[in-house]
Every structure is written in C-alpha cells, then in structure tokens.
Amino acid sequence: MTTIDLVQKILLRSGTTWVLWALGALSVASVAVIVERWFFLRSRDCDPRALAGRLRAHLARRDFAAAAEAIGRTRSVAAAVATAGLELADLGALAAEKSMQSAAALERGRMERWLAYLGTVGNNAPFVGLFGTVIGVIGAFEELGHGTTHAAGGATAQLASQAVMSSIAEALVATAVGIFVALPAVAAFNYFQRRIASLLLATDAIANLVIAYIAGEPPDGARAGAELGDR
Question: Which of 71, 162, 166, 230 is the most exposed, having the fewest neighbouring CB atoms within 10 Å of its CB?
C-alpha cells in the first residue's frame, strides 16, 4: 500500500467529521475575537468635539502640561496620541508631530490585533468546508461502486443508491457550515476596519489641532504676560 492509498483510506474513513470539528473550533475562536475587539475598540472611542473643547482651553494659554494632564485620564486613541505630542511640545512642532505619528502607529497596531485572523477565517472557511464535502463525495461514490459491484438485484442497487445520496447530502453539510462560519468573520472584519478608520480620522483631527497651537505664535498679550511672569 502506497502513501497516497494510506492517506486516502484515512481521509475516507474519517469522513467529514474532523472537518466539522475544525470549523466549529474556528467559529468559537472567531466569536471570542469579535467580542474582545468590540469591547476594546469601544473603550478607545471618544467624542472628538468634546476632546477638542477640553484641549482648546489650555492650548490657547499655551499651557501644554495642563492640556496633557486634562486628557491623560481618558483611554481614547485620540487622547493617547495627543498626549504624546503635548509631552514634546517644548521641543517644537516637528518633534511633537513625529511623536504623535509614532504613537498613532502603535495605537493602530493595537487596534488591528487579531483582525488578520478574522480575515483568514472569512476567506478560507468555505474552502475548508468544500474540502470536507469533496472527501464525503469521494467516499459516497466509492460506496456506490462497491454497492453496484455486489448488488444481486434491482432492489439492492436502489438501496445502495439511496445510501449514496444520503452520504452526499451529509457531505454538503460541511460546505454549508464553512459558509456559516465565514459570514460573521467577514462582516466583523469589515466593521472593525471601518471603526478603526473612524477612530484614526478623529485622531488626525485632534493631532492637527495640537500641532496648530504648538506651531502658532502666541498673541502679543499672551507673550507679554509670559515675560512678566518670568520676571
């Protein structure tokens, strides 16, 4: 017996059972990832208008330390990126911008964690189910060949054909399960991508606001007040 014959015998004997178990495990893991990502992204969301209003009160006075402290207590992505820039505001607008770009890249990596898994499951679960169906159909036709060879009469052959049709119907279940596993993964992947894009858009708006205040020159009154305070 060759290696190919041995593999074929093992696959046909196991049927589609192991494929269904594998798809079930993928589905459970997908649901866990979806729930974890939903709660994580929800905790990192914010109202950009409200955050900008809290920042302007301190940025107008060029009190960057107070601005960083005011938003440092929130867990939003925009607040984390803005804080990174405000901490380097004394080094100039370019340093603050680079710091916020670095922080935004790190935050994006955290937000996109496990999304590759959802995309992989969404793209490949139907093929896993189709593979199980192919194995089941091969086994069904092999059973049909044995039943036709040993059939003594028309009634026996008809019973063999009915058994084969039943086996094929069971094999098609693997394809259906594969599609069922893929649909939520694809939907969640697309939703999370849009959610991340929305969070990054709000982050860019806050970052540009911070850079505008850091790069801008203070008004004459504010500059004079600062000089008097230093004296």
Answer: 230
Rounded distance, CA 109 to CA 35, Å? Answer: 18
The reply to whether 40 falls in a domain is yes
User: Per residue of the chain (231 residues), what is the pLDDT tens digit?
Assistant: 565 555 555 555 556 788 888 999 999 999 999 999 999 999 999 898 988 988 888 898 889 989 988 887 788 999 999 999 999 998 999 999 999 999 999 999 999 999 999 999 999 999 999 988 888 887 777 766 665 555 445 555 565 566 667 777 777 888 999 999 999 999 999 999 999 999 999 999 999 999 999 987 665 544 434 443 443
As for how many domains the chain has, the answer is 1
Could you tell me if residue 171 is inside a domain? no
With respect to residue 175, please indicate whether it lies within any of the assigned structural domains: no
Q: Which domain holds residue 43?
A: 3-123+181-216
Q: Does 151 map to a domain?
A: no
Dihedral in degrees, nearest 10, Cα atoms 21, 23, 28, 34: 170
The residues, ordered by sequence, that sit 6+ positions from 184 with a Cβ below 8 Å of its Cβ are 27, 30, 31, 34
Stated as kind and residue range, the H or E segment containing 6 is helix 3-14
